[in-house]
Amino acid sequence: MKISVYVANAFSKNHKGGNKAGMVLLDNKLTAIQKMSIAKELGYAETAFISKSQIADYKFEYFTPKEEVDLCGHATIGSFALLMHLDKLFNDHYTIETNSGVLSITIKDRVIFMEQNKPVYYEVVPLKELAGCFDVRDIDVKYPIQIVSTGLKDILIPIKSEERLNALQPNFEMIKRISKYHGVVGMHLYTFNNNRIICRNFAPLYDINEESATGTSSGALACYLYERGYLQKETYAFEQGYSLHSPSEILVNLSTNARDEVEKVYVGGKGDYCETKCLNIE
Length: 282
What we know:
Blueprint: E1 2-12, E2 19-25, H1 32-42, E3 47-51, E4 58-63, E5 68-69, H2 73-85, E6 93-98, E7 101-108, E8 111-116, E9 120-124, E10 146-149, E11 153-158, H3 162-167, H4 172-182, E12 186-193, E13 196-203, E14 208-211, H5 215-227, E15 235-240, E16 248-256, E17 262-280
């Protein structure tokens, strides 16, 4: 069977960089094994499979080359950039069915925003547990190392400077071991440089050593910074992907209540259609 597979960049900056993802518009049913095979052949961090939904405008399923995951920000942004390219979008608001629930998509001035779940805060990870993942002397101990999720769990790790973040040498086997122990997707490292927030993301447990743009992790980080009072902004702009020569920009808007608690999380960015491939699958 021949399958058309689309490729788009999500969270691109000035139509450059971003994070590539695969997309398949499903007319026929595919098995989980077939979907994983497609994701593996493409070799991107995630591939989105888009089909009809009984409870939303679209149903989204996300596969890494290794297994299915509940949610993927950049594959969703890339998918809506593709649908825009194919002239299939006529509104500025859509809903998608995912394994993390039904989420809303809003499009404004060609920026695609994806709703995520309200933040859930898990355990604080002791500094000593990260020994061997990279040089722990690079970690900024002013901020707790905490596991946070707005759909996928990540360990949020503060780094002292942009220079140290860029020079950091990860031990992927150790990161994989720690990620498995804590039941997280991976580690999201961040640092501040004046008004800029720069990040790197490692998820070797899911065969993604490093990713150039990570929407779900950015949503979690924005909630953490806001609710912990470290940095409160109306719109967060996260930079990522420099170490992969693919600079990306991820925007996060938070909606809060009178008690300054996050009620809604929207992760967004721009996307660019790249190419169409034809794959043969069994």
